[in-house]
Amino acid sequence: MRRILSELFGTRRRQYQVGVEFTDTQVRLVSLSKRGGQHRVEGFSIDELGVIGDPHAAAQCLARLVKRMGVKGQRVSLAVKSSLAFTNSALLDATLSRRENDDRMLAEAESALPYALDEVYLDYSVVESIPTSVATQLIARSRVPQELSSHAGAYQKMLLVACKADVLDPIVEIAEQAGLRLDAVDLDSFALERALMQSTLLPLKEAARQPLGVVALILLESGHSCVHLFHNGNHKLHREWGHEQTNFDSYLKSQFSDEIIDVIGSARLDYYREVASDTANQVRIALSQLPNDEVEGELSLALLGGNGALARGLIETDLIEEMANSLLCEVKSANPFRRMTLGEGVDSIALDRDAPLLMVACGLAMREASA
Predict the structure, then answer these.
(1) Whose CA, among 87, 143, 259, 272, lies 20 to 30 Å from 164?
(2) For position 253, what pLDDT does the model report?
(3) Could you give the domains of the chain?
(4) DSSP state of 316
């Protein structure tokens, strides 16, 4: 059982190089290596899904990318949306054995999950060591295990992750049909946290013990969008919302002939304002849901990505400016590769163009550990 869980959620310590993300309309792939502590982009690719919602079509699309990139046989990690998984944290005695941790977390899952254990895949990991004096401030004293009451530094914070088999199995099957060796399934929020720390100056601020503030990563996609909120570099929550249209080029083509698209700048700007206003409302709702006892400060930075944010193949300055006006903070185009080196044959211009689409895939490819 533990072997299966480790393979699915990647608790085995291995080196990961390839990240694959499925959206409603695309398959996105990033291949990374790491030399001397520096990540290097070995390749990336994006392909459109021929038939949306068809697992066979998704497998064929992924197989094309695998062949194009030459990554068959390499270890690969895929993402599951955080909204499709269940997470829960627990505080356990840091002196427990691995077997005792397994038993405790299984009991935690049985009491917390809204569905039967035989319907899900489970995994957990240690995310933080917490002194007893601090831990008792975070939870009610009645919930502090008795055996920990007199032990300083005896807590470890565990994160439990569960995903229903009927969600995970189709993803695993797609990878297998494409000829990939699947090493891990990760939550998109975990992947985005890694990509965020890589692509911003947050690690430098963290090293200097400066407050990192709240960062919003906004991913506008066709048909649905989401915002992930981070505080001090840690993922706090996400919010998703659906909509009819986010891609401006598609919107214009449905309203006007192709010949006049480039000359109706006012219509483009009006649309950007509408998108920015709607997005800002969703971000404000997400901000209002942050725990007040854990998060201090206002939104300090927003990163914008996703296929729905592109116009003529890139995120235009006008959209970024309108988003900044609506959110009242600095807004930048998402780019997880800013501080990476490029491998031979990697087109830097194409990478910059596609970077806002590759945050999740890049974060997945950053999974790593030595054996």
Answers:
(1) 143
(2) 62
(3) 2-82+165-195+340-365 (3.30.420.40), 85-164 (3.30.1490.300), 200-333 (3.30.420.40)
(4) -
Residues of the chain with pLDDT under 70: 1-16, 73, 128-154, 201-212, 244-265, 293-297, 368-371
DSSP per residue, 128-173: EEE-HHHHHHHS-GGGS-GGGTT-TT-EEEEEEEEEEHHHHHHHHH
- Cα–Cα distance, 361 to 371 (Å, whole number): 23
Is 156:132 a contact under the CB 8 Å cutoff? no
Confidence at residue 130, expressed as pLDDT on a 0 to 100 scale: 53
Side-chain-side CA neighbours of 190 within 13 Å: the count stands at 23
Between the alpha carbon of residue 345 and those of residues 43, 44, 69, 317, 349, the distances in Å are 8, 11, 11, 28, 12
User: pLDDT tens across 66-97, in order?
Assistant: 888 887 767 789 999 998 988 888 888 878 88
Q: Residue 71: helix, strand or coil by DSSP?
A: coil
